[in-house]
Each structure stands twice: as C-alpha cells, then as structure tokens.
Design brief:
This is HIG1 domain-containing protein C25B8.07c, mitochondrial. It is a multi-pass membrane protein. The chain is mostly helical and 113 residues long. 59% of the residues lie in helices and 0% in strands. It has helices spanning 27-37, 40-60, 64-92, 107-112. α2 packs antiparallel against α3 (64-92). The N and C termini lie far apart (63 Å).
C-alpha cells in the first residue's frame, strides 16, 4: 500500500526572504510578502473592519441588539488578529533578510573601512 502523497521536506517549508534594501520593492510586492508570510494578520484586520462597519450600519438603523452583537464580534476579531500577530512573532520569528553583497567577499575588509 504505497502512498501517493509527497513527502514533507524542509525545502517546502521555506519562508520567503525580505531583500536587504526595502526601497527596491513596490507596495504590491511588500503586501504580497506579508500575505505569504502570515495570511492571518491581514485576514484579522479585514474581519475587524468589516464587523466595525456592520455595527455602524446597525447603529444608524437603530437596531441596537444587532449593533451590540457586531461590536462583540469586533472584539473577537481583534483578539484573533492579536493572536495571529503573537503566533507570528513567537513561532515564525522576525523576517529574514538577504545578506548584503560584499564585493571583496570578506567580512574583515568591511570592518577595516
């Protein structure tokens, strides 16, 4: 009974590296990097904004029960966002940066300058 599933390897779990100079990236590339690195943080932000807007809608319609319910959902979505942020910091770690290119190939030459 052979399994057709690919074997997990550390190569598949590699996170993208952030370039040494952030000025070389466009906004869309930075946003793509954030979504790839931890998609739950932007998702939590969108959930928070959505529930906040929905509660505002129900406040204007004077449906205070639904407005209160969506305010509770907003607090839960903020908690989800903070949990995703904490998970990112604790388990994924800080973003890895590419090493700056050194023309001489030696660290000591940079120290002497």
């Amino acid at each position: 009974m052979s399994s057709k599933l690919p074997k997990k390897s550390e190569e598949n779990l590699e996170l993208p590296t952030f370039p040494a100079s952030e000025e070389s990236l466009s906004r869309s590339e930075k946003l793509k990097y954030v979504f790839v690195r931890n998609p739950f943080i932007p998702l939590g932000c969108l959930m928070t904004v959505g529930t906040f807007l929905a509660s505002g809608y129900y406040i204007r319609r004077e449906n205070h029960l639904m407005a209160n319910k969506f305010m509770r959902y907003r607090v839960m979505s903020q908690g989800f966002t903070l949990a995703a942020l904490a998970f990112s910091v604790l388990f994924i770690g800080p973003p890895r940066r590419e090493a700056p290119s050194n023309s001489s190939g030696s660290i000591n030459s940079e120290i002497k300058k």
